[in-house]
Amino acid sequence: MEPVHRPQPVDLLIVGGGPAGLCAAVEAAPFDLKILVVDDGPAPGGQLVKQTHKFFGSKLQLAGTRGLRIGEMLYQELAEYPNVVLWNDSRVLGIYPDGVVTVDRAGTYHKFEPGKTVIATGAAEKFLAFPGNDLPGVYGAGAVQTLMNVHGVLPAERLLMVGAGNIGLIVSYQLIQAGCEVAAVVEGLPTYGGYQVHASKLRRAGVPILVNHTIKRAMGEERVTGAEIVKHKDWVPIPGTEREIACDAICLAVGLSPQNTLARMAGAEHAYVGELGGWVPKRKKTGETTVQGLYVAGDCAGVEEATSAMIEGRIAGMDAARGLGKMPLTEYTARMVDLERQLVELRSGPISKHIRAGLEDVLFL
Amino acid sequence: MRITNHPILQFKLGRRVRFTLDGEEIWGYEGEPISAALHDSGVRILRYSIKEKRPRGFFCAIGNCSSCLMVVDGVPNTRVCVTPLREGMAVRRQHDKGHLLVEGGAR
Question: Rounded to whole angstroms, how far apart are CA atoms B26 and B18?
């Protein structure tokens, strides 16, 4: 790495080019600001690039549009602004208490001193403890999606899905579309957590969704050749209900953890909120953390879904623009009212009950 | 195996190129992650764990988890799930922590 010692000026630095990060940039772009989006992926869009299903929500939030298309639309919108620069294959190495952000861009070292910083780093997949979980063939659901929906390679011939939340159900259906057999979906809870519409699609395709079931072990020496599953009562396995399922892959869709390392490094106060996926930064409604000028948006602030991440990103982006003195107050107020209303509406259903409860523990005035 | 008939997606593949895995010839498409090319060819073991020498494949496929570290053109600890394939690459399974690079290649 070539060292660059003098920090480079930038008004707004956004970490992460997924739904939240791109929306933060889109919202701040019309104002006279120098904006840099740093993303570690090969192309912008974050995890949107592998979402082949149509999104929910309202028309305003692009419901009915496939996730991968939403990423492209946001990117195209940004391309019209010469004041917005997007770096891919670039990794933020650290955010320091004095606000300095360091970046590795394909082997070159850069230092920035942004006016405001938005962290939109998303979430990482959770793992599950069982014998054989380190065998080749045990994959995260995101990995399976990346392989089949981005690179066009079939992840497995016959797969066992662990977890029947939205991700488990959606990825199972996408596997069938790609030509993979899904042996079963096992879910530890007494009922599946995902939307009915996704579960119904699987049922019609003949895939059993086994609730109150869990994986006991992965079978195989050099790679996965099967899985043993078992029924449980109150998380105690019921003897005699073990069953062996032949499969060449086991896919884990057991939840996500917010990627909070940068916010913690910068010194933002965190709270453990199970409903939001773990440790998350405390913040104002605008996304600003306890570190002045440092914002969080999207899954890194609490695991939810892409539509809410996009609105959170927009709120953080415009609040940063306002804070940098570039957005007129009347425009800011009107826009904020609109975006906040969208968020409240999106989170009004029974499926978002835990999100509403979780947010109460992290929001401060 | 490649997905050839998908109801929603069409895949744009790069040029078909040759590379090696532990010295043996193998084929993939230029620009795709090395791990995708290997998976397509049926390769599941990418490295061995440091202490117990247990086989490891990829897990996250987006460069977060360090499960897929291999030696690529002499560079150890390369995340093959986010490293684009180039013609003639020499890819090796990693058996240890890797070594510091010195002049003239890895030691």
Answer: 6
> Is the pLDDT at A5 greater than 70, yes or no?
no
Chain A residues within an 8 Å CB radius of B61: 139-140, 142-144, 146-147
Interval A138-154 mean pLDDT: 95
Give the model's pLDDT for residue B107: 46
> What are the chain A neighbours of B57 within 8 Å (beta carbons)?
135-139, 223
- pTM (predicted TM-score): 0.90
Q: State how far the alpha carbon of A356 is from the alpha carbons of A277, A293, A304, A352, A353, in Å.
A: 13, 25, 11, 6, 5
Q: Which residues of B touch A18 (CB under 8 A)?
A: none
pLDDT at A107 over 70: yes
pLDDT tens digits, residue range B65-80?
Answer: 999 999 999 999 999 9
**Domains present along chain A, CATH in parentheses:** 8-124+256-360 (3.50.50.60), 127-252 (3.50.50.60)
Quote the tokens at residue A354: 């835990």
Cβ–Cβ under 8 Å, residues A72 and A45: yes
Distance, CA of A223 to CA of A249 (rounded, Å): 9
When pLDDT is averaged across residues A320-327 and rounded to a whole number, the result is 95
| CB contact A49 to B (< 8 Å) | no
Mapped onto helix, strand or coil, the DSSP state of residue A163 is: coil
Asked if the C-beta of A179 comes within 8 angstroms of chain B's C-beta atoms, the answer is yes
Which value does ipTM take for this structure?
0.93
Residues 6+ apart with CB under 8 A from A7: A100, A111, A112, A113
Architecture of the domain made up of B16-94: Roll (3.10)
Size of interface A-B (CB pairs under 8 A): 94
Q: How far apart are CA A95 and CA B83, in angstroms?
A: 25
DSSP string, A130-143: -TTTTSTTEEEHHH
Of the partner residues A47, A146, A223, the one whose CB lies closest to the CB of residue B55: A223
